[in-house]
Amino acid sequence: MRRLLRSPKVVIGLCLSGVFGLLAIIGPLLAPYNPNTSVSTTVSIAQPPSAAHLLGTTQVQQDVLSQLLVGGRSTILVALVAGAAPTVLAVLFGVTAGYFGSWGDDLLSMLANIFLVLPALPLLIVIFGFLGKGANPNDALIGVIIAITGWAFGARQMRVQTLSMRSRDFVDSARIIGEKSWRIMTFEILPNLIPVVATSFLFTVIYGVGTYTALSFLGVISTSHWSWGTMLYWAQSAQAAQQVHLEWWWFVPPGLAVGLFGTGLALLNFGIDEYVNPRLRGSREGGLSGRRARQAGLPRRPQLGLTPVVRAGG
Amino acid sequence: MRMMSRRISLYLLTAVVAITVNFFIPRLMPGNPALAVLGRVQAQESPQAIAALEVQYGVQTKTGLWGQYIHYWAQLLHGNLGTSLNSYPASVDSLIRAALPWTIGLVGIATVISFVLGTLLGVAAAWRRGSWLDGLLPAMTFFQAAPYFFVAILAVALFSTKLGWFPPNSGYDTTTLNPGFNWPFISNVIDHAMLPAVTIVVASIAGWIIGMRNMMITTMDEDYVLLAQAKGLPSHRVVSYAARNALLPSVAGFSLAIGFIVSGALLTEIVFSYPGVGYLLFTAIGSDDYPLLQGIFLIITLAVLLANLAADFVYAFLDPRTRQEA
């Protein structure tokens, strides 16, 4: 765990996603205005940032900062549900299918393969289109619907990893001393899959943020339900990026928030990947600063096929 | 060729699933949305449009569900995707057919550029591990995590509105030009496609770079690469040996990526008001044009499946093991 925390990628990733997680919890309480209220009825162009409105206002004089804070909760909640639900299912089905094999495994692989090649966003647009643009959609339900299209990747990975575990010596010996199948799966195989489960969860959350933002940007989910995608929908329909006096304060904050939240999760993901496979690190990372490396006499570019190592505490 | 026949049957199965899902979604939703749709559009649409909708969604027919399903297949196999509600009496397939060349041109070219450039950069990043290219990785991660359409909005704001280098919207200058095979029109189309294409490349390239870099690093530890280096081969030969083998997972991963890229590209079209399928989709959502929505879903699915099939052929060409297997 400590080795994991030494990677700058993991630390930055944890900080970024932690800040956004906190904002999702307390954000709506901090919002200075009601995101729906027009603060002025006399002005009809978007106002740039000022002391009263730190991120300016929209064309109809709503406070952008309040929209950002209120919309963050919905966005992150949907993403977490869309990431957690399929990960649980992927572990359940992937591990059992990989472990037992036979027709259940074939069925799962086929379903997973179908969902992997089926383009998810158009399918979701059709589903949400027929669900109708109800005034106040339920975030958890949106997350679950997005999850329908996001489980296959994780399940396939889980299955492949379990397959490679199944014939290892420690699993064989557990089977020989008579452990039950569920016990082998939960106590012998699952602990070895934790990095895979973690990366698959993070990957699916990133997918959830992107998909939810895209769906609300398209206006297929109620456009009065505040999320970062809805903010971008209104900014786009007011042509905020095409105005002569560029209304950047309107469309940059929500897009940046989606991008930074996703970047945080992706960095965490890379950190875990590099923890599992240290060769993926850049040569300067993993505890050695450039100066230390030079002092230790390491070449600036490591020799092909070799990973430079310095004896610690020498 | 067992691998190819297996892949083709997977795609056929996926197509059947997509068509079946498309048939059942309007019929299985809570509160029969087909009726709700009819109720909503009844006021604005002509009686003919309503009648067409009733046939398509099986309202007020005595045919059972199975009969409707067979009828639906028969319609599809005749290339009939229904009638658009918003631009009645235009058929859905005529609308899609007009939009499709724009999307295929834009997305196809941008995806190929992104794949080739990203793979080359990935090879370079792995070969010169720890160089400035590695420093670019976090920035590229941001562009990958940020939605395509946000990158597109930024591109419009910076390069069209602020700098005025590129036209901000549309596929060509509709006020002064007529479509035709002549240089003014073609150059105008290229001018309009430049910014959307660059956006798609920037937003999708990071995945190829990172995937190729990681695979390259693993491949460079193989004995045959070390041997090639030890024999004293020039380093570009060594790199090409390693790269050819590291390329396989990237090609295999194409099927995972293509769905994402196409979806992202459709959203990019909306920002640029590009006259392709994505913009058509956006107008269909805005006007509750359900037949058009479903038609676009089917066409996109088929296009993605075809792209996958092409990637599989490339894979079989690159990897002799898949050809020997049979």
Description:
The complex is a heterodimer of chains A (314) and B (326). With 314 residues, chain A is mainly α. Chain A has twelve helices and no strands. Chain A is 67% helix and 0% strand. In chain A, helix 2 (8-30) packs antiparallel against helix 11, helix 7 runs antiparallel to helix 9 and helix 8 packs across helix 9 (181-218). Chain A is globular, with a radius of gyration of 24 Å. With 326 residues, chain B is mainly α. Chain B has 15 helices and no strands. Chain B has helices spanning 2-28, 33-41, 47-56, 65-77, 92-127, 132-135, 137-145, 148-162, 183-219, 223-230, 235-252, 254-272, 277-286, 290-318, 320-324. The mean pLDDT of chain B is 78.
SSE map:
The complex is a heterodimer of chains A (314) and B (326).
Chain A: H1 2-6, H2 8-30, H3 64-100, H4 102-117, H5 120-131, H6 139-148, H7 152-166, H8 169-176, H9 181-218, H10 228-237, H11 248-276, H12 290-295
Chain B: H1 2-28, H2 33-41, H3 47-56, H4 65-77, H5 92-127, H6 132-135, H7 137-145, H8 148-162, H9 183-219, H10 223-230, H11 235-252, H12 254-272, H13 277-286, H14 290-318, H15 320-324
Helix pairs in contact in B: 1-14, 5-9, 5-14, 7-9, 8-9, 8-12, 9-11, 9-12, 11-14, 12-13, 12-14, 13-14
Contiguous helical run count of chain A: 12
What's the order of the H and E elements of chain B? Answer: HHHHHHHHHHHHHHH
**Major sheet characteristics of chain A:** none
Largest interface: chains, residues each = A-B, 64 and 72 residues
Number of strands of chain A: 0
Radius of gyration of chain B: 24 Å
Mean pLDDT of chain B: 78
Rg of chain A, Å, rounded:
24 Å
- Contiguous uncertain segments of 5+ residues of chain B: none
Total number of beta strands of chain B: 0
Any low-confidence stretches of chain A, pLDDT <50, length ≥5?
Answer: 283-287
- N-to-C span of chain B: 5 Å
Helical residues, percent of chain B: over 70%
Beta fraction of chain A: under 5%
Sheet having the most strands of chain B: none
Look at the helices and sheets of chain B and give the structural class.
mainly alpha
Oligomer: heterodimer
> How many DSSP helices of chain B?
15
Termini Cα gap of chain A: 24 Å
Outline of chain B, from the CA principal axes? globular
| Rounded mean pLDDT score of chain A | 78
